[in-house]
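User: Run a structure prediction on this.
Assistant: Running it now.
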Amino acid sequence: MVLNRVWIGMFIIAMVMGFSKLIFWQDTHILQTMMDSLFESSKTGFEIALFMTGSLCLWMGIMKIGEDGGAVRIMSRLVSPLFSKLFPEVPKDHPALGSMMLNFSANMLGLDNAATPAGLKAMSDLQTLNIEDPKKATNAQIMFLVLNASGLTIIPVSILAARMANGSTEPASVFLPILITTYFATLGGLIFVSIRQKINLFDKVIIGYIGTITVGIIALIYFLNAHPDKINTISSVISTSIIFGIISFFFGLALKAKINLFDSFIDGAKGGFQVALNIIPYLIAMLAAVSLFRACGALTDLMNLIKAGLIVVGLKTVEFVDALPVIFMKPFSGSGSRGLMVETFKSFGVDSFVGKLSATFQGSTETTFYVIAIYFGSIKVTNTRYAASAGIFCDIIGGVTAILVAYLFYKV
């Protein structure tokens, strides 16, 4: 299992580096720093889960209203032709289809608080079909997780907000590069999993849906490129309008069906609390490994080694290496990579090449191992099969594309 190997590897590297610095470099503070970081990560993991509990209860309660009122079933029918090709194991009109659509929509709009509960609900719904071996991930669960982890984002709200908060004079300049990068990462993940699961990507239904999405993205790019000063406003309005539109749609159909909305919400919210409890051990385990890997200095040393190696082989420009910590941290921790992105803003300038590239890295993919840990952890699946390797493939595609796009857009 890749996740197990990565987790153990980070601990071993951290321990070796920690004791090496103590013995050979007489760094008497390194082990204390690592210990403080380790305990801080456990506290942070619980705080994140505690914060997430409220969000999970809210959104799973709302989705329960949508499910009881028939809204999720209607949404499922909209994507049923495509999902029947990508998720052949999932029956038509199954609740998982609606939950997956909500998750993908929220991710595209950069609505993290809405995306995670919808994703966890989708994974729970998919688990109801996992009868043969409940501890082993199904093809449908892997496809869903990889498409989720590839992080297709049309409107990177949080990144635009971070750039504005750090004094950017052109916060929306990263919008187009992020959109291109995350789109290629998602396509890469789709192709990877489709090959493993023997799904025909040249099917006319799949081509039709992907072609329509591509045209829609191009149209959005064209429109926003013509109104660069309005990107932040448009992003905010579209995001909030869609999410409140979905809630209104759920409530409206539930009222029409004469559903007891309050009782329905409470039933769903109870499930959200249980999911939050299931997540805590997996979340703390991942954050503990990441915190040690970062505290021991392994991440910084790795960047310096890469830069030295590139110079030795004759690469003339290694400026992009200064932004690499963000993409290296992203698969493990969204908050960690976000912190590194902000540190890059402060060190190199928010509108510098490195600053813009770090923002592009941040928006290129999702937190692969974090998503695997909490999504599979919430349903107690321990055999994740090739989900981690597929997620890493998305991360590599996203990282390489981000660098190429950055030199195209930011080095003009």
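The chain has one domain: 2-409.
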